[in-house]
Amino acid sequence: MSTSHPLPRWADLVLLPAVCLGVALLAAAGVVALVGQNPAEVIAVLVHGAFGTARGFSYTLYYATTFVFTGLAVAVAFHGGLFNIGGEGQAILGGLGTGLVALWFSAFLPTWVMLPLMLVAGALFGMAWAAVPAYLQAFRGSHVVITTIMFNFIASSLLVYLLVNHLRPVGSMSVESVAFADSAKLPGMHEALAWLGLEWPASPLNLSVVLAGLAAAGVYLFLWRTRAGYHVRAVGSSASAAEYAGIRTRRQVMLAMAVSGGLAGMVGMNEIAGVHGKLLLEFVSGAGFTGIAVALMGRNHPVGIVLASVLFGALFQGGAEVAFEVRGFSRDMVVMLQGFIVLFSGAMVYVIAPMLAWVLAPRSGAAHG
Amino acid sequence: MAGGLAAHAALAVRMTGIHKRFGAVAANADVNLAVQTGTVHGLVGENGAGKSTLMSVLYGFYQADSGSIEVLGKPATIRNADDAIALGIGMVHQHFMLVDTLTALENVMLGAEPHWLLRRADAQVRGKLQALMQSTGLHVALDVLVCDLPVGDRQRLEILKALYRGARILILDEPTAVLTPQETEQLFDVLRVLRQQGTTILLITHKLKEVMRLCDHVTVMRAGRVVHELPIAQASVEGLAEAMVGRKVHMGRVDEVTLAPTDILLQATDITVRDALNVVRLSGLNLTLRSGEIVGVAGVSGNGQSELLDVLSGLLQPTSGRLQMGEDTFDASNPLDPLKARALGLAHVPEDRHARAMVMDFVAWESAVLGYDGLAEYAQGGWMNHGAMRQATANMMERFDVRPRDPELLSRSFSGGNQQKLVLARELGQRPKVLLVGQPTRGVDIGAIEFIYAQLRAMRDAGCAVLVVSSELDEILALSNRVIVMNQGRVTGELPIEKCTEASIGLLMVGDAA
User: Fold this and answer.
1) Which of A246, A288, B89, B137 lies at 20 to 30 Å from B130 by C-alpha?
2) Which among B370, B375, B386, B437 is the top mutation candidate for probing chain A, defined by the most A β-carbons within 10 Å of its own β-carbon?
């Protein structure tokens, strides 16, 4: 028996993250005030920039889409007892797969073949990139944290090598491929809404946001409704109990990492197929790592991850607005705010939860005395 | 001790009105305990009855919320273990507090080095210890690394350590849990000598026979309160058990119609297991399990019983040997695994509930289908039928009286006994032909023990072949039709229950041929 009362479920799921976010904002506001800025103004600009306009909101969702993929990737591996730090590399490889099939086939295949093909290629490339560390973990005992980190570097070098030496058009100075044909372009949200007769400002937001929603639902169904997901979670929580149950633990490690890598590999659908229309460097730009923070804050649950992704998307978009609008406020301040959020919702949550439990604890009858 | 002038002056420990709450639970409620100097005082009760909490208060691990303590007639404030040691209180924990990589001597002096030069300290401690060993009969090889000492020696070392630090009052927490009957007898001889020399001993135990043999007084606790306190002359095993549980219990053998065991359901031939370091864990073991019998496996823990269970359930591939289940033969070329074993009607209640039997972070119904999630009633293709699983769990909880009856509660939130009942419900639920049970009642309350025994007997009567591995000899004797004794990975003897006595099994446990 512990001395503290457990938090009620609603408080654990809703109130606690909200309080953590509030404390993080307060701490960040303190720093903003220290450097001589007005915290209220900064917050107002940030919120308005992220949610205040249709265009701003679209950007928020565009960023969030990428984070949903990488956040889900971290969460699935986590439920299998694995800490996949390699979302970055798996997303790079996924984008490479998406881009390669687009470069090869988009000239003659129609859109309705092209887009599913690009999705599958991206997922398969991400999967393959995760499968190597997974194999080394399951059958050779090399720790997946170490190997996935290393595979991030290899992935980024591989992309540079291919772009510089093979995919760059002869004579071009910029390190990027030629543009894909139109059949490899995932329609933007404004285009899709225009078909329905709705007007929406142009933005990078594209139909992959729907894909992200489907991926979140799919992850939920996989982990909590299928036997395979049950096996993955059993191995993640207690490998010895899973073995006792006759679950082949190595196979589950492979499965969890494959699904994880596949999800990270779908990032290319947003960035490559949805926005750039060509293969280039830096299209992941740290989203793989942000995915770790997103999964942490979202408690490794798809619903939480979607919400946390929107929050981080808002910080990216709103932060850019703040850096643009408020004089003397650099983007680094936004990075600091993100740091506080990760700190408070990740590490400090264990400090805040008991306090919250104490506040919410039913007082005994002597309360009036 | 010369006869006490007044009863009061002769008290070694007097705890008055001790209250200790953990959250909403009162672990100790108005507990009074008086222990006379130079006696062995037994403290018995079920898990969670509050005896460990009470001793932790005495030894300074916890502070009581209210109440007072007197040690050797003087009021005492005990804030930590150092205070307790200074007052002459020593404690021997159930799990030894020894550093494996130091010698016995170094362990004794650790934290109490009498000189800053280790060589000098060494000599001083050695001298004192030898005198102490001489007078008490507690002999331990002082220059051997603790990891190389047998369990019985480690326990003697723990007692020596406490005495060296000047303990006049010795708290022993379940000291016989890891000992063979012979080692237990030796320990009791030592404790009797210590008592004669005036040491006061507080014995926490759940083995009532030992209380009857050794103690002068006994205190029974239930649900945080003292429910019974009496001199041993007035106590009986039955009476103590009843006081502990709060109702009549029957723990011994049940008179039974002996069914002649019939068909061979499982046969293990010449099983040898070597571990990663090439140490032999099982050596040429043969075993036959027949329908309608309970076979008990006795032995000191760590003599191959765990490996035997793992091999029979398919969790561990033997280095050599063969298993026969019905028509199927399993060996290196066709290894048994837990899935195949379950499919053939083998159920396994593992020794280690926390690591094996349940996933502690799963809710109850998720743990209640562990290993059986592929059954047609639980799954449609790759999808889990949550409704059916929840319903089945609710039924299991009803039939096996699992409390609280909440399939949505986390597995870890249940008490040990209720976890075990849920595991039994799961494993017995599919009408197994062979049932392997490791430590059926470890960490389980007496009330639940009775129920678990009844379930195992019912399985046997229904024609199941049951194998029970237990470190509790009483349990083996209460359940088995036939007893196998293991020592160092070998079967050292096999006895029908009629020929079993504690002495005969004890000899086999240490490896002597009977």
Assistant:
1) B89
2) B370
